[in-house]
Write a structure and sequence with these properties.
alpha/beta, three-stranded antiparallel sheet, binds magnesium ion, 313 residues, binds adenosine-5'-triphosphate, Rossmann fold
Length: 313
């Protein structure tokens, strides 16, 4: 079987203008601009297979959006190669475009002044979606995303959550085989984040295809992605099971004890000392309950970045 996505040593360097300080600096910038390069992606290599939902995580400026743009053909890599469904994305061939979708939480695809349903019918024409498939997908997505009441409302009048749901629907009308989701839950309240998350989970369970998801919310990643690719300053730090990140990078656990007085104490202890330390705590304190927990995934990921940055210095 061939892989759905193959990235091989993908590198992207942006050329950006160097700003010089002060008024004279600005004038000199205007007359003779100086440039520096920003390496947003460095030798990114991975493969993704049919059916996978992979979390692509990293701090601001790590290179996530840049990579997704190269995978969807919006940006040309400085070096390296990409294959998505056997296509070179950069060629933007019609058979490629009709099989992928990119949803960006920060940007909209829907026409602002028109009701969402108008953008949907436009998508039907652009993607040449057969009438019966369009009808089926429209009714399925409307139902799954609870959109029936808002489809005829001008998009500018929708709430952020309603608009995000409509963005997801329009992106899926043509049944893409590869879906790039760049921060689909950004800015949503916790309830709406959960709604979008549930939708992504259900969609992934009931449809063929591969999904790459970026998010700064670890809840999204925890609930949706078995596999994560962690990227920092354009480089992949880790690619594997989320569960293994915890085992690999977090050598501590948390012992939480609830004392008879009602006070809750937490103790961070090395993994291999958990039993011994628990026994000692039980012996020495008046404890009514004890829980042993993993360190929150947010903190583990922070540790991954901290150790990567330390190694660089
Ligand atoms: N069009 C551009 N021109 C110049 N530099 C850019 C451009 N787009 C991104 N960059 C730079 O490339 C790096 C990676 O940016 P990118 O948007 O891919 O990060 P990201 O991981 O998506 O971050 P975020 O989590 O904030 O969305 C950053 O240093 C950014 O400033
Ligand atoms: Mg981004």
């Amino acid at each position: 079987m061939t892989h759905t996505i193959i990235c091989d040593s993908l590198t992207k360097t942006y050329k950006v203008e160097k700003k010089r300080p002060g008024l004279t600096g600005s004038l000199r910038d205007l007359i003779k601009p100086q440039y520096k390069s920003v390496m947003a992606a460095k030798n990114i290599s991975f493969v993704i297979d049919e059916g996978e939902l992979v979390g692509f995580i990293g701090p601001n400026g790590a290179g996530k959006t840049t990579t997704l743009k190269m995978l969807s053909g919006l940006l040309y890599p400085t070096s390296g190669s990409v294959q998505v469904l056997g296509h070179d994305p950069w060629l933007r061939e019609y058979p490629f475009l009709t099989q992928i979708s990119l949803v960006m939480g920060q940007k909209n695809q829907l026409w602002w002044d028109l009701p969402a349903i108008e953008s949907f019918s436009l998508a039907k024409d652009i993607y040449n979606i057969p009438a019966n498939l369009y009808k089926k997908n429209l009714s399925e997505l409307t139902e799954m995303l609870d959109l029936s009441k808002v489809l005829n409302t001008q998009v500018r009048k929708l709430s952020l959550g309603q608009r995000m749901k409509a963005e997801l629907a329009v992106a899926l009308l043509h049944s893409p085989k590869v879906l790039f989701l760049d921060e689909p839950t950004i800015g949503l309240d916790v309830v709406m984040q959960q709604v979008v998350r549930n939708f992504i989970k259900e969609y992934n369970n009931t449809h063929e295809g591969a999904i790459i998801l970026t998010s700064h919310y670890m809840e999204d990643v925890k609930e949706l992605c078995k596999r994560v690719i962690i990227i920092n300053e354009g480089e992949i730090l880790y690619d594997g099971l989320l569960a293994d990140v915890i085992a690999k990078f977090s050598n501590e656990k948390i012992i939480e004890v609830i004392l008879r007085s009602g006070k809750v104490e937490t103790h961070k202890v090395p993994r291999d000392e958990v039993t011994g330390r628990s026994a000692k705590l039980l012996q020495n304190l008046d404890i009514v309950d004890i829980n042993i927990k993993e360190i929150p995934i947010e903190e583990v990921i922070r540790q991954v970045f901290a150790s990567a940055n330390k190694n660089k210095k």
